[in-house]
Amino acid sequence: MTTIDKTVVVLGATGQQGGSVAAALRADGWNVRAVVRDVSNHGARSLSAAGVETVRGDLGDPESLRAAFSGAHGVFSVQPNSGQAGADVTNEDEVRFGTAVADIAERSGIAHLVYSSAVTAGSTTGVDHLDTKNRIETHVRKLDIASTVIRPATFMELLVTPEMGLDGGHLSFLMRPDQAMQFIAVRDIGRIVAAVFGSPDRYAGRTVEIAGDALTGNALAEHLTQAAGRTITYSRLPATLLAQDEVLAKLAALVDDGRLAGNANLDALRAEFPFLLSFDRWLAGPGAALLDEALRSTD
Q1: Distance CA 105, CA 172 (A)
Q2: Residue 195: which of 240, 154, 162, 148 has the closest Cα?
Q3: How confident is the model at residue 131 (pLDDT cuts 50, 70, 90)?
Q4: What span, in angstroms and rounded, lies between the C-alpha atoms of 68 and 96?
Q5: In terms of domains, do 22 and 40 share one?
Q6: Number of domains the chain contains
């Protein structure tokens, strides 16, 4: 492992993406500074135990961000959004937070900003919590700072959350049974971001759509059946549900037109990032415990 005498500030480090980025950067020898609301909570203490510096800060408090960014080399920016379960932010909050992080990074002399966006960015979708990313991307590109935008595919982890119904032997999601959709393991987002910070000349100014696998609904069911040791079937979300839920209906339509299904060049990505996990390898590795929990959710 190469020790790098530079610090990367990671936002959202107690969450999925930020946590994976912090872990991957630490594994590559970077100093990592995590901005957290409460340095005494369990997540922050776990980060400290893993060698991550934790500092108090809040996305709504510019002064705290300026202090957190002081002397740092890089910033990884990801924001909570209104589409997340239990989120206490509005869409305008997300845009305000994302643009403020970029502005403060520029003024603080940050050498490299990496912003995590969404595969649908680059177009207006009509889904507010997706279109926020497009607005933040546009702002970042106007600034005088070296930046990289990553656009992760849908998380593999989402497929095995307890509420997906795997304990009942069935998975329902956005694509048709014979329709392919791209996915990525959250762990691999962190590893890609670490690679980006490690090769700034290669990635500065680039927008990179990232995914690890593309699977139809039927293929998902086959892999889940094999990993679970019991039959898992698949169907698209019911038409009655899509008719009742405008956001879900729009998301399904975005899968149909390809924008949410993903258009990453998987062969090129696997050549560039050989560690990328396919869904079956993820199920046998980082996803095994999550799948087991999902299968036992009503036990």
Answers
A1: 41
A2: 148
A3: very high
A4: 18
A5: yes
A6: 2
Determine the 3-state secondary structure of 130 from DSSP: helix
Range with lowest mean pLDDT among 3-12, 25-34, 120-129, 197-206: 3-12
CA distances from 91 to 18, 97, 127 (A): 20, 10, 10
Domain contains 268: no
**Helix axes of 217-228 and 288-295: crossing angle, nearest 10 degrees:** 90
The dihedrals phi and psi of 11, each to the nearest 5 degrees, come to: -90, 150
Residue 8 in contact with residue 31, Cβ under 8 Å? yes
Does a structural domain hold residue 127? yes
CATH number of the domain within which 98 lies = 3.40.50.720
Single-letter amino acid code for the residue at 205: G
Q: Is the pLDDT of residue 1 over 90?
A: no
Cα 123 to Cα 263: distance, rounded to the nearest angstrom: 14
Determine the Cα–Cα distance for residues 63 and 78; give it in Å rounded to an integer: 18
In our burial notation (b when 16+ CB lie closer than 10 A, e otherwise), range 10-40 reads bbbbbebbbbbbbbbbbebebbbbbbbeebe
Residue by residue, what is the 3-state secondary structure of 255-295?
Answer: HHCCCCCCCCCHHHHHHHCCCCCCHHHHHHCCCHHHHHHHH
- The predicted-structure confidence for 139-179, as pLDDT tens digits, reads as follows 999 999 999 999 999 999 999 998 899 999 999 999 999 99
DSSP, collapsed to helix, strand or coil, labels residue 89 as coil
How far apart are alpha carbons 198 and 119 in whole angstroms? 23
